[in-house]
C-alpha cells in the first residue's frame, strides 16, 4: 500500500476528532496528492474536513483544479469555503472561470471581502497587484509592544502568517514596518514608532512580476508591501509567491528559446501542442527556405563539386551550435541583470575573441579533413575559411541579436534563436559556396 | 550624480552617529553595489561601519568577493568580523580559499564556533548540509510561552530571524516546532509542548540541494530543519537559500542544453570560455561529420539532381527545431517532476500524434514547394515524405532520449540535444537522399 492509499483509508475511516488531529499534522499539499490519485473519492474525502481546511487545500491546488474542487460542495458551503480562502488564490481562481459564475460568486460574498477581491481582479495577473494577497497585519505607530501582542492574539488567526507588522497612518499610507523579532525581543511598554523601520522598500502594484522577483532575489526579503502611487498599502507579496514566479519565468525562458508557447502543458491536448508549436515551425520554415535559396544561388558550383554538398552540414551545424552558446549566455545574463553599459564592451571583445579562436581551431580541423577527403588542399582551404568565418558570425550575432531585441522591447528569449540560426545558415552557406565558386578552377 | 555616487559621498562624510543610523536603513546589498563600483574606496567605505554590519555585507557578497573584502582588515578585526558572519556564508567562504589560509582562520576562532564551521565544511557544498546555517533557536518542551518570550529577548539578536522555534530533547533530537505565530497568539502560561507541532518535516543533511528546493517549492515552507540519521538537529535551511539554488539550477539547465559549462561566467576570461565550450563543439563536430558521412553515401545521386542539395537545409533544419521542442518539454517536465509512470504513455501518444500531424502539414507544404521548384511532382513527393518522416523521428527521439538518459543517471539537459539532432540529421538525410536514390529515374 503506498502513502496516498494509506492516507485515503485513514481519512475515510477517521472520526471527527481524528480528522481534527490530522489537520494539525497533514500538509494540505499531501491531501491534494491523494485527491489527484483518487478522483472518484474527492467528495467523500474532502467532506470529512472542516471548511477552513478545505479552503487551505483549494489554496494549494493548481489554478485549473481549484474551481473543480470547490464545485464538489453545495452553494452555501461554497461561500463558507470561499470566505476562508487566501485572497490571492481566490482572485486567481475567479479570474480563471467564466464571467457569469464569477459574478454569481462575488455577489454571494460579504461586501468588504467582495470589494477586496474585485480590486485584486482589476490588476493584470502578471503584475505585483496580480500576485499580492490582501491579508496583512496593520497597526498604528502609537501602539505599545504589549498592545500589539494583544492585538495579534485577537486577529492573527485570520491573517497570512505575519513576518512583519505594517504601520499605517489614518489614510492607510505605509509609515514603517515592525519586524516580528522586534516585537518578540522588545520590552512591553516600548512604542512601535521607536522600533519600526522607516524608509521601507515597497513594490508598486503595477510592477511586472519578473522585476518583483529580481528584487526579492537581490535583497532576500521574506515579504514585501505593495503600494499604489500615493504609498497607500494594498497588500503583500511573500517569498513563496515569488518561488512560483521564478519557476514560471524559468519555464517561459526555456520554452521560448525552444519555440514553445509558455502556456503549453506537458499533458495537454494534441491540438494545444500544435497551436503552440506549429506557428514557430512555420517561421523556421521561412528561414530554412532562405538558407535553401542561398544554396540554390550556387547550384552550378555544387553540380561540379558534389563534395560541397557533403560538407554543408558541417558549416551550418557548427555555426548554429556556437551561436546558441553565445546567445544563451547573453539571454541568461540579461535575465540576471548581469549585463550593463560598462561590461558590454568587455563581453563583446571576449565573445569576438572566443569566436576567432574557435574558428581558428575548428577551421584548421575541417580544413585538414576536407583536404584529405577531396585530396585537394584548396578544398580544405575553402571549408576551413568558411568554418572560421561562420564561428565569428555566430559569436557576433549571438551577442548583438538578443541585446538588439531587448532594446526594441522584445523578449530576447522569444526571437533570438531564429535570427541567430538564420544568420549562421544563410551567411555560412553564402561564404562557403561563394568562396568555392571563386576558387572553382582549383577545385575541379 | 547616480545613487551609488551619492551613497559613497554620504558614507565618506558621515559621523559615527550618522553611520549607526544608516545601518538601520541601508540594506547591505546596496552598500555592496557601491563597493563594486568604487573598488579603490572599498577600505575607506567599509572601515566606517561597525564589525557586525561589515559581516552582513560580506554575507551578502558573491562567493569570490567575500574573502577579498575580509582581507581589507587587519587580523584581529578579521576575526571579529568572522565571529559575526552567518555560519553558512562563512563556511562557503572558507571552502573557497586555499587550505593554509583556511586553517589559520579556523585556528583563530573560538572553539565552539570553529567546531560548528568545521562540521559545515565537512558536507558537500551541493547538499542540504552544505547550504544549511547553524543559527537557529532551540528550546525545551517544558518551557512556557512567557519563558520562551524572555528567552528570545535574550538570545534572538544572535540568531538568523526566527520563523520557527525548534523544540529539542537533551540529545538534541528534534521533537517539534513552535511557529512564531503560536508564541505571539498564545497566552503566557501555556506550555510549549501544548502548542508545538509534532511530526515535523525534516531534511536529511545528505539530500541533494535540487531535491531540497523541490520540497520547499511543493510545500511553500519558509524554513526547514536539517537533521542527521538519528534525527539530531544540525541546522536550518531558509527559503532565501533556496532562491539561490533555484536560480543556479536554472542557469545550469539552460547552459547544459546549449552546451556551456555551468561554471562559465558572462564576464569570465577568453580561456575559461573556450574551456567551457570547445569540448562541446568538438562533440558536435563528430556528430556533424556523421551527418556529412550520411550525405556522402548519396553523392552520386546529388551530382545528378543538385536540387537535393538545395533542399537539404530544409529537412534537417526543421527536424532539429521540432526535436528541440519535444526535448525541451520533456526535460522541463522531468525537472518539475511532472512525468510519472502513468502519464508517460499519454505523453508519448500525444507527442507521436503531434509529430505525425506536423509532418503531414509541413510535408505537404514542402512537397508543393519542391514540386513547383523542380517542376517535378516526384521531387515534391520525395521531399514531402522525407519531411514527414523527420518530424516523426524528431518527436520520438525528443521523447525517448531524455528519458533514457535520465534512467541511466545522466542529466538529460547535458546530453539530449546532441543525440536528438544527430538522430534528426543523420536519419533525415538518410531518408531524404535514400528515397531520392530509389526514385532517381523519375527525378532526372
UniProtKB/TrEMBL annotation, chains A, B:
Family: Belongs to the SLC41A transporter family.
Subcellular location: Cell membrane; Membrane
Single GO MF annotation: magnesium ion transmembrane transporter activity
Native source species: Proteiniclasticum aestuarii
Broad class of where this protein is predominantly found: membrane
InterPro entries cross-referenced by the UniProt entry: CBS_dom, CBS_dom_sf, Mg_transptr_MgtE_intracell_dom, MgtE_N_sf, MgtE_transporter, SLC41_membr_dom, SLC41_membr_dom_sf
PANTHER family for this protein: MAGNESIUM TRANSPORTER MGTE
Taxonomic placement: Bacteria, Bacillati, Bacillota, Clostridia, Eubacteriales
One Pfam family this sequence matches: CBS
Protein name according to UniProt: Magnesium transporter MgtE
Quaternary structure (record): Homodimer.
